[in-house]
Amino acid sequence: MRFAISESEYKLRIERARKQLSRRRLDALYLTNGTSMFYLTGYSFISTERPAALVIPLDGEITFIGPRLEEDHVPLETTLIKNVRTYVDYPGEKHPIEHFAAFLKEMRLDKKRIGTDNKAGALGMWGYRGPTLAKKLAEAKFTDASDLVPNMRQVKSAQEIELMRESAKWANLAMTLLQEYTEEDLWDVDVALAATHETSVIMKKALGSDYVPKRNIIPVSAGFRGQIGEMSAIPHSMSTKRMMRKGDAIIAEVGVDVGGYTCELERTMIVGNPTAKQEHYFNTMQRAQEAAISAMKAGDSCSEVDKAALDVFKKAGLAHLTRHHSGHGLGLETHEPPWLDIGNKDPLQNGMIVSCEPGIYEVGFGGFRHSDTVLINEGEAELVTYYPRDLNSLIIS
């Protein structure tokens, strides 16, 4: 059983990135995005106000430059980063960007063409202030390469797909527990914590000592985010002050970290017997999701998927209740390209993994959305998540 991407695959990714550098006539890649760093090396860290970057030269060893508190962390996560250059802290007596400029000079990149995902040279997190790296290295030519790693990530490898299938297995358990533990007069947070804890404990026992989450603090994220009753009509709700009660439409969500990758599984449930209106909205949402999944074929455009779902809502007279597009890419992040949006004409590709989650929301009444993780194939798309989607299975008596 695989719990992480193999070192050999990371080496292939670095090789692919260097081929892109060569095609673009660049001498090095300078990355500040933590997800991109993890994708290429397997090194994950907590990004803060302290600047950090990964430097991949066209020829030569990979270097991490960042705060001293990461110095001993890097070798615990990867053997692919050979050099670690650090400064004490931010802002410091000498600003971190001053250190970064000196490090790049030592690497003889101060007069080279450097592709970067951030010309400032540092993420602007938590009140960061400082000069740009480009100003400190006036003879270097910095070129936008912010698309390089994200483009590589869109089509998943066999190893990535395997990790996301494993994620889906445990998401199924977590969703089962969310539904089982939900009842009237409970705060959704209580249910979320119970399902998250139990699934995490069982998962660790079953997978053994080699398993550890790679991109999150805990293995499982299961809950409702306050999408209870009338608050389920707020797609990105975060919390609610009231308890669950009979008649509520609720939206349950689960993600599980396996090797840094996570599926997405969401279900709309009804506490007690649904009303005729709830049943109508639920069934329309389900038909829209099925139409979107049917439109997911390699070579077809992302816009066709969104259009298929919208057509169902339009025919039902409910298109005015939509609030978002029908899905997005999944993998190392819960939202990543491609975007299944009416305005995105890019084609789906064999091996992409996306969410499928068309929804409708009526303020003061409720929201109705399932989300499934879908693998794009040449023919019929494959549902990676497999929790029941029909209304009868999702009624909480």
What report would you give on this structure?
- The mean pLDDT is 96.
- This protein has ten helices and 17 strands.
- The protein folds into two domains: 7-152, 3-Layer(aba) Sandwich (Creatine Amidinohydrolase, Chain A, domain 1); 154-396, Creatinase/methionine aminopeptidase superfamily (Creatine Amidinohydrolase), CATH 3.90.230.
- It is globular.
- It has helices at 7-23, 34-41, 74-77, 96-106, 133-136, 148-153, 158-181, 188-207, 276-294, 302-315, and strands spanning 28-31, 53-57, 63-67, 83-87, 113-116, 141-144, 220-223, 249-256, 265-271, 327-329, 336-340, 353-356, 359-362, 366-369, 372-375, 382-383, 395-396.
- A hairpin with a 3-residue loop joins strand 13 and strand 14.
- 32% of the residues lie in helices and 19% in strands.
- A six-stranded mixed sheet has the order 4-3-2-1-5-6. A four-stranded mixed sheet has the order 7-8-9-17. The protein has a three-stranded antiparallel sheet with strand order 12-15-16, covered by helices on one side.
- It is an alpha/beta fold and 397 residues long.
